[in-house]
Amino acid sequence: MNRLGVILLNVAVALYLFANGILGFNKGMLEANPFRKMLTDILGKGDFTNALVIILSVCAIAGAVFLLLALFKVEVPITGLILFVFVIVWAVYIVFADIIHPLNNKTEFLPYLVQLSSHLMVLGAIVTSAIETPTSRIRRR
């Protein structure tokens, strides 16, 4: 039963990352994309913000793909490394989205908790997949 929970969590997180990555390429949907909303609130509008949104969106799509590859035990030599890098990128994103951004803006408590919990679930699923990849098992022995 535990394995079913891991599968459901990883598939849900992969869908979350994939959808947010796709939304990042749509400039018209400011409210629907958390990457663009957060970066626009912190940095304002501009080319640098747009470039960072695209980078985060590509990272999210890549993270979703590698999360699914790790889930289905498809052996790609660098999956563990890429997931580890994505753990770091996502942790930095959490710092900006859930610590710096709320300090700059008036944020209601319950929506903040919903956002924080979803970001922590994503981080937990990525960490779990990064630990369970075949290449990371070899390093632990």
What does this structure look like?
The structure is a single chain. The chain is an all-alpha fold and 141 residues long. It has one domain. Helix content is 81%, strand content 0%. The chain has six helices and no strands. Helix 1 runs antiparallel to helix 3, helix 3 packs across helix 5 and helix 4 packs antiparallel against helix 5. The longest helix has 26 residues. It is globular and about 40 Å long. The two termini are 26 Å apart.
Give descriptors for this structure:
141 residues; mainly alpha; globular
Total number of domains: 1
Radius of gyration: 16 Å
The termini sit apart by 26 Å
Which structural category do the helix and sheet elements fall into? mainly alpha
The number of helical elements comes to 6
Strand content: under 5%
- Mass-distribution shape: globular
Q: What kind of sheet is the major sheet?
A: none
> Low-confidence stretches at least 5 residues in length (pLDDT < 50)?
136-140
Number of strands: 0
Q: How helix-rich are the residues, as a percent range? A: over 70%
Mean pLDDT: 82
The ordered string of helix (H) and strand (E) elements is: HHHHHH
